[in-house]
Amino acid sequence: MHKKLPLFIAAGNPRRWESHAxxxxxxxxxxxxARNWPHELKKAADEAASLPVHxxxxxxCRQWWTLALRYSLIYKEYLLFNIYRRTMNETEKYVGRDPExxxxxxxxxxxxLTDEIAIWTTDLKLFWNRN
Length: 131
Description:
Blueprint: H1 5-12, H2 14-18, H3 23-35, H4 38-49, H5 56-95, H6 99-130
Helix pairs in contact: 3-4, 4-5, 5-6
């Protein structure tokens, strides 16, 4: 339900949606999601978290969109990480493994991603417990 607020506003009063403070964000968001570039997803999640709200319902909508965009970013990073891991596993058969490069591009990123997943999971549980 929370993700549909912009649609409800537009359907209920198209002129109101034309001047709504969230419209520029959602106009950009379609292209950002289609491109699925991590740096754009991160920026969109940050921007979603700062959308102006005037009531509790919009606050919940803003929280939902922030969680959804953070998930999209985590998922994209997970996919990129797995592609890199597979590439490194194949490459090391021929050239070996450089421990420093492995740590920098595999060990450290997986720790960061694991931490981000744990934080996101906690935030999602809190969201559902409160809503």
